[in-house]
């Protein structure tokens, strides 16, 4: 069984909607499309590329798939050529409530039982990456159908937009897998692994609490 990686860019208030471009996702009248662009630097770029090591499949929601399918097939000769060749070559699995035509090479529509379909994908591959796809991410969080969460948190507050934990998620423990990385613009990369159990509780008013 492989690993499912969720890769997201988030604001301090947890908004992950449309970080890359103004027209990426305007649902709900979102007015801040492209909010990440002024905060993207070489550190972010290097870490994003490093995080793709071993990727052998993409798992995407319909909106993110459409954006990627319109962009990456035309980038192999540009500055993002390495990532473009990787994304263009690996299998792409798409979650959709409809029956879209998938024209990007090596694309496959998942069946209506999304949780079962995702488990089958994880059984076929070693490192499956979910990039963006905030609606799909909600299902994966609720079903605990992920193994790694790479979360870039940037120093802006938007107040509106789709959030990483829009539906609250389910109680879960996560473990930091490596030291945080900070960008020159104040963004912080946190890489987590899903851990066993649910969050514990304690009593900070006890005299023997050890502080």
Q: Overview of this structure, please?
A:
The protein has 211 residues and is α/β, with parallel strands linked by helices. The protein has one domain: Dihydrofolate Reductase, subunit A (3-Layer(aba) Sandwich), CATH 3.40.430. Helices cover 23% and strands 22% of the residues. Strands 1, 2, 3, 4, 5, 6, 7, 8 and 9 form a nine-stranded mixed sheet that branches. The chain starts with a strand and ends in a 16-residue tail after the last strand.
Summary of the model, kept short:
The protein is an alpha/beta fold. The chain has helices spanning 42-51, 62-71, 81-89, 114-124, 134-142, and strands spanning 3-11, 57-61, 92-95, 107-109, 127-131, 148-154, 173-176, 181-182, 188-195. Strands 1, 2, 3, 4, 5, 6, 7, 8 and 9 form a nine-stranded mixed beta sheet that branches.
Give helix % range: 10-25%
**What is the chain-wise order of helices and strands?**
EHEHHEEHEHEEEE
Nearest-integer average pLDDT: 93
Described by strand count, sense and barrel closure, the largest sheet is: 9 strands, mixed
- Rounded to the nearest angstrom, the distance between the terminal CA atoms is 42 Å
Query: Total domains, how many?
Result: 1
The CATH superfamily is known as Dihydrofolate Reductase, subunit A
**What fraction of the residues are assigned to beta strands by DSSP?**
15-25%
Structural class: alpha/beta
The number of strands is 9
Tally of separate helices: 5
CATH-defined topology? Dihydrofolate Reductase, subunit A
């Amino acid at each position: 069984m492989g690993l499912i990686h969720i890769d997201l860019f988030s604001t301090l208030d947890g908004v992950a909607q449309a970080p890359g471009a103004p027209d990426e996702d305007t649902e709900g009248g979102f007015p801040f499309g492209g909010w990440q662009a002024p905060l993207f630097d070489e550190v972010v770029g290097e870490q994003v590329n490093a995080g793709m090591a071993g990727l052998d499949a993409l798992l995407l929601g319909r909106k993110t798939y459409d954006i990627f399918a319109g962009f990456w097939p035309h980038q192999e000769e540009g500055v993002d050529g390495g990532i473009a060749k990787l994304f263009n070559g690996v299998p792409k699995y798409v979650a959709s409530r409809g029956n879209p035509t998938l024209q990007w090479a090596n694309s496959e529509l998942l069946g209506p039982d999304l949780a079962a379909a995702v488990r089958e994908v994880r059984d076929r591959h070693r490192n499956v990456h979910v990039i963006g796809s905030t609606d799909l991410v909600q299902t994966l969080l609720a079903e605990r159908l992920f193994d790694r969460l790479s979360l870039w948190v940037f120093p802006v507050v938007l107040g509106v937009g789709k959030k990483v934990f829009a539906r609250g998620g389910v109680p879960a423990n996560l473990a930091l897998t490596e030291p945080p990385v900070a960008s020159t613009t104040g963004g912080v990369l946190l890489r987590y692994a899903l851990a066993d159990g649910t969050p514990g509780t304690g009593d900070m008013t006890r005299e023997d609490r050890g502080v």
